[in-house]
From TrEMBL:
Signal peptide: none
Full protein name: Glyoxalase
GO molecular function: lactoylglutathione lyase activity; metal ion binding
Keywords: Metal-binding
Pfam families xref list: Glyoxalase (PF00903)
Record InterPro entries: Glyas_Bleomycin-R_OHBP_Dase (IPR029068), Glyas_Fos-R_dOase_dom (IPR004360), Glyoxalase_1_CS (IPR018146), VOC_core (IPR037523)
Domain VOC: 10-127, 169-284
PROSITE patterns associated with the record: GLYOXALASE_I_1 (PS00934), VOC (PS51819)
CDD domains found in the cross-reference section: VOC_BsCatE_like_N (cd07255)
Length: 284
């Protein structure tokens, strides 16, 4: 089953605002092993396979640090194809003495967490086979259990790390919002995602094609949290990919009926969720 290709609707690219472009390029290239597709004094595009953009870095003229307790990026998540690749990257980070912020077994996946130099949250994970995911009444069972780090590192033993796997994709994005109900209307009734899991009244996980989640939404920054300043570090936009022009047009019509902002820039359409998070709507 395809979760990050047609016919699914999925996340493909994330654009970040950073304070120091050289510092950020160094981290994403040397620590995570991404390839540089484009680079200027204020801009860079990075890829895992040498052709598909995954992360876009932009350095505005007057960038400021993101204030706490605001909406925006919680983390973006790079999905590796297997445990061996996760172990290789984990060992590389350990060898570099790069600080990790957490590690979890989510039942559907195994993940490690860290931040880039601008404190943008990053999850690096690999999925368990979908046949092992447990579903009940349309909701998938997820948890936050201790990670078997030793087992993952053992999988990579004897394998040389030469960069992140070219099969790496943007697995999902997790963002902070001001109100879960408003966000559910926008992302589900508007963008066309389905609810697949809830953590109480503070977090919501949504997807298409029965993935465990393409988007996570939480109010952990506080209910009614304000958006960050326009030029602060953090997420600039993230890309949602639709399988056809017809499917995207249906979504654009739904968004307009909901009263959401829809802006066309050249061949691309952008919208903004109720918490100020900017979304780029494209056709894959």
């Amino acid at each position: 089953m395809s979760f990050h290709d047609q016919p699914a609707t999925y996340i493909r690219e994330v654009s970040l605002l950073v304070k120091n472009i050289e510092r950020s390029i160094s981290f994403y290239h040397e620590s995570l092993g991404l390839q540089i597709l484009e680079q200027t004094d204020q801009y860079a595009v990075l890829s895992a396979n040498g052709s598909t953009p995954l992360i876009r870095l932009e350095m505005p003229d007057y960038v400021s640090e993101k204030q706490p307790r605001t909406t925006g990026l919680y983390h973006f998540a790079l999905l590796l194809p297997n445990r061996t690749e996760l172990g290789k990257l984990l060992q590389h980070l350990i060898d570099q003495r790069y600080p990790l912020q957490g590690a979890s077994d989510h039942l559907v996946s195994e993940a490690v967490y860290l931040s880039d130099p601008d404190n943008n949250g990053i999850e690096i994970y690999t999925d368990r086979p979908p046949s092992e995911w447990e579903w009940e009444d349309g909701h998938v069972k997820m948890s936050v259990d201790p990670l078997d780090g030793d087992g993952i590192l053992a999988e990579a033993k004897g394998h040389e790390w030469t960069g992140i796997s070219p099969q790496t994709v943007m697995g999902h994005i997790h963002i902070q919002v001001a109100n879960l109900n408003d966000s559910q209307i926008f992302y589900c009734d508007g963008l066309g995602f389905d609810v697949v899991s809830r953590f109480g009244n503070q977090a919501l996980f949504i997807s298409t094609n029965s993935y465990h989640h393409h988007i996570g939404l939480n109010t952990w920054a506080g209910t009614d949290a304000l958006p960050p300043a326009k030029n602060s570090t953090g997420i600039h936009w993230f890309e949602v990919v639709y399988p056809s022009l017809k499917k995207r047009q249906i979504v654009l019509d739904r968004l307009k009926k909901l009263g959401a902002v829809v802006e066309q820039i050249e061949d691309y359409f952008f919208t903004v969720d109720p918490s100020g998070n900017r979304v780029k709507l494209v056709v894959g």
